[in-house]
Amino acid sequence: LLYTIKFELIYGWMAGALYFFYCLSAVFVLAESGKSHQNGALEDQKNVKTVYGEPELGYYIEIFLGTPPQPLNVVVDTGSANFAVAGSLTAGVDDFYDSSKSGSYIGKKDRGISVHYSNGSWEGYYATDTFKLCETCESGIVDVSVITSSSNFFVYRGLWQGILGLGYQALMQPSPHSSVPVLDSLTKSHVIPQPLFSVTLCGQRDRDTPDLHGAVEFGGSADASYTYTDVVKEWYYQIELTDLTVDGKSIGLHCSELNNPLAFIDTGTTNIVFPTGIHDKVLAEIGQFAANLKRPELSNDTLSNFLSRSEYLCVPPSNQNASPSTNQSSSSSTNQNTSPSSSVFDWFPELHVFFAANATHHFAVNIPPQQYIRQNTTSIKYEKKFPDKTFCYGLAIEAGSIGTILGSSFLERLNVLHDKENKRVGFREDTTTCNVTDPVYVKKVFEVTPRNQSAAPCLTSNKPPTLSLTLTLLIYISLFLLLIAAFFQRKRLLALFRYCKSQGAFWRRGGGTKYSYMMNSDDEDEEDEEYILRDDEEAENEVTLAGYTAKSSRLQLHEEVEDGEIS
């Protein structure tokens, strides 16, 4: 019927707008309602991978891709969801995935992909292949992107050939449903029992052993040994911060500012990143603490350049354990940090980050100076300037526009559990994986304590849009599209109204078969004409109308209509 009266265009507009509204509504309903997937019947499988890497070049693990399995090193990145590997030799890559040697490879070169990060980007195409955590482990089919070109993505001397994104589906680029994250695929194929993993990053401990190391366990268990904070939104592992202290003193900002626009943990980010306002507050407190020591090595310019990350702080070996300056602050914290055995790390305070345990309690995790002050071992500039192997240090705290990012400098020497299914992140101390014996390198997770209830909620300013607001916006958008469609198709809508009106009158008269034809004139000032033919039991009609012959229920075209459009 709609086609007969040439109504397909307006029908397409209406159907498209309504379908758009329906699909997006369904997506948001699913996203807000969450998923429930249990694998309790499976045995607990422990897939532990050793972490390798070098300072500032990234943490990576070895995986196996294809049949027969090809070993590749991939960066462990909880701040993204794509799994991608180099498809050829390029700058910064010493090995690559050769799809021609894999019997299980299925390429989709007609489906291109382009992914951009805060630093670097790459382009490639989609594929699927078998994936193993070790040569003898069970395999599963996963989505993988084969990188054909990149810009500032691979790192010279990085020793890795790809990236393993372990974030939520919503982080998948270029769109959330373009492919399935590896962790979800391995869970679905029962390679791991549940979508969770724990990460321990050991970090740099001294100049002679700069290599980073640690462990990643896939599909372990979430037990009471962890202290948990909820994931407040499933894309990054976004969490709620309640406070930030420097040398035991709060920086004085409301917790909503710590979470504006968001705060999350990310193994793929090296430094600790704060929004500009928080960054300036933290550095002001650190600078004041260091200035109060009045060490000769920390002149105003030296300290300023170090905190602004424009220069390294370089100290000759003879001064590493130098006696404290005679002109010192008399505070207890200052006396404690300027003993004769003082090192560069003693010149700076300890930080504490507080996480929400629930609506009424929180807990703290410390950041000793050994974590946010990094030894530099790769700078040729400073090796030439200080041939006596002077120790140089850089600051691992920087300003950013995304939000608060607790990168690997914060996560080191912690065992961090990422429980995707139950939407939570767990922290616990880990001294065995990293073989930590020096107490200053021990990471501490403090007990849960009551939080300040007089302040406004910490997530008020950055709470994700609610379902009702989303649906309201979609409804307005759909109505707007329908109004536009109605405006451009107003003549056809009028014709439809006339037709429906005449059809109703006809059936009220009790007539037999009815045929209706609409003549649409090209002249906007001339109204469309309507011709109604009736065929009842008492008469056989054959009527010629503008080149058309109507006989019984058949229409035959005799000649083209030159004036006007007929349907």
What does this structure look like?
The N terminus is likely disordered. The longest helix has 26 residues. 22% of the residues lie in helices and 31% in strands. The strands form 6 sheets. A 6-stranded mixed β-barrel has the order 2-3-8-4-7-6. Strands 12-13-16-24-17-23 form a 6-stranded mixed sheet. The protein is an alpha+beta fold and 567 residues long.
Summarize the structure.
The chain is an alpha+beta fold and about 575 residues long. The strands form six sheets. It has a six-stranded mixed barrel with strand order 2-3-8-4-7-6. Strands 12-13-16-24-17-23 form a six-stranded mixed beta sheet. The protein has a five-stranded antiparallel beta sheet with strand order 15-14-19-20-27.
Question: Tags for this entry?
Answer:
single chain, 567 residues, 6-stranded mixed β-barrel, 11 helices, 33 strands, 22% helix
Give the count of helical stretches: 11
- Number of E-state strands: 33
Shape annotation: globular
Structural class label: alpha+beta
Report the helical percentage: 10-25%
User: Can you give the mean pLDDT?
Assistant: 78
Strand order of the largest sheet: 2-3-8-4-7-6
